[in-house]
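Per your request, structure below.
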């Protein structure tokens, strides 16, 4: 039987598209959450350090919020996957959903192998990472708004609604909130970041920092994808830049509120400052016609460098 070639369609994948470049980078930089090392050592360092119950509860709160956040964004990406029509975008998004699931797995593993065993041996109450007291009102509001913005695409997929969804998900939750949290962890529990964050002389916790370093490199790619989409829509005149400004400014108080209730072991003030700086830089790149989103390999490398050194 002779196979007839379909001359009406081109090759489906565009290797020169930014989405394919991001997908290739995701494949190249693959890592395994089950192989992150240092968790057993973190447990022993905690037991040797013997944090107070208030200090340990603050640490648990931070880990809980990250784990729940990764789980939430894994679910919230699904509407975007359903409305994408371009195969290159679909392929990148499939890699992002997979990576968010890996992040969820790492934080779950850390809770089971470090947080719960330390609580048990120190005589502190063991809690679930989903316990509601870990999530303050601003945290809940931020993720509720993000979920609503993503689900709106299923009933009204417009350029403005897509930009709003990217602003919630990629530019606020992933770019500002997550990056601020990673910066806080690395400042408190490693030689990187800022000396102003930790209110106590914490031990270096290589397990949590190793995991966060890998996660953070993924987020650099995710943030770049969203920034590219939003910037193109604004610069082409498809969506007014005021939509971006209004959305991000509406969400920033929730980001600040999410990190502002620390204080026993971590100083929230430099974290809020860091978050506002991140937000300002994202807006500048999107709205400045002469600015550019860095290439994907540079975005990832920047986050890896920042993970091990003082933030820029």
């Amino acid at each position: 039987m002779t196979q007839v070639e379909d001359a009406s369609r081109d090759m489906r994948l565009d290797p020169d598209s930014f989405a394919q470049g991001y997908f290739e980078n995701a494949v190249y930089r693959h890592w395994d959450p089950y192989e992150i090392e240092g968790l057993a050592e973190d447990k022993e360092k905690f037991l040797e350090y013997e944090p107070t119950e208030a200090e340990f509860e603050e640490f648990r709160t931070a880990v809980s919020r990250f784990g729940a956040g990764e789980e939430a964004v894994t679910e919230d990406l699904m509407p975007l996957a359903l409305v994408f029509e371009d195969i290159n975008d679909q392929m990148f998004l499939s890699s992002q959903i997979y990576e968010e699931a890996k992040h969820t797995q790492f934080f779950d593993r850390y809770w089971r192998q470090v947080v719960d065993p330390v609580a048990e041996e120190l005589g502190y109450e063991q809690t679930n990472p989903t316990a509601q007291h870990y999530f303050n009102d601003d945290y809940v509001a931020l993720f509720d708004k993000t979920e609503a913005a993503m689900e709106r695409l299923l009933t009204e997929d417009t350029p403005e609604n897509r930009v709003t969804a990217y602003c919630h998900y990629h530019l606020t939750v992933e770019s500002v909130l997550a990056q601020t949290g990673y910066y806080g962890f690395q400042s408190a529990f490693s030689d990187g970041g800022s000396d102003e964050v930790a209110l106590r002389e914490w031990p270096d916790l290589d397990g949590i920092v190793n995991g966060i370093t890998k996660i953070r490199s993924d987020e650099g790619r995710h943030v770049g994808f969203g920034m590219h989409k939003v910037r193109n829509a604004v610069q082409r005149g498809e969506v007014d830049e005021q939509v971006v400004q209004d959305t991000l400014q509406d969400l920033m108080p929730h980001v600040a509120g999410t990190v502002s209730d620390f204080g026993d072991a971590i100083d929230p003030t430099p974290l809020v400052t860091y978050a506002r700086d991140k937000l300002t830089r994202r807006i500048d790149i999107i709205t400045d016609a002469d600015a550019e989103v860095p290439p994907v390999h540079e975005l990832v490398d920047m986050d890896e460098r920042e993970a091990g050194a003082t933030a820029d």
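Residues 307-312 have pLDDT under 50 and may be disordered.

Regards,
D.
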